[in-house]
Amino acid sequence: MIDSGLESKQEATQCYTVYLDLCEVRGWWYVQIHYCKKLEMAFISGHPTRHEPREIVLPLQSCQTVSLEMIQTYQQNIKIDDCNTNRLA
């Protein structure tokens, strides 16, 4: 994670662990790690199957509490060209 913008080794490890899970365990296609400068956090995108649309995954810890306001902030700020982030699935 050279020059990724991730603040800590823990964040980088957590993101990479989710990345590997999506690629190796779940068999997702075209998985990529992105960085949102505005939120100072990494996120992952990929296709659950070869023909399904791209989805965004936030590598959050299971113990983290996520408020409705934070979900809205994620939706407003985490963008990639070929993925609609204006709704929750």
Automatic annotation (TrEMBL):
Domain tRNA-splicing endonuclease subunit Sen15 positions: 18-87
User: Which superkingdom?
Assistant: Eukaryota
Presence of the UniProt keyword tRNA processing in the record: yes
Q: Which UniProt keywords apply?
A: tRNA processing
What family, per the record? Belongs to the SEN15 family.
**This chain belongs to which protein, by name?**
tRNA-splicing endonuclease subunit Sen15 domain-containing protein
Q: Which SUPFAM superfamilies match?
A: tRNA-intron endonuclease catalytic domain-like (SSF53032)
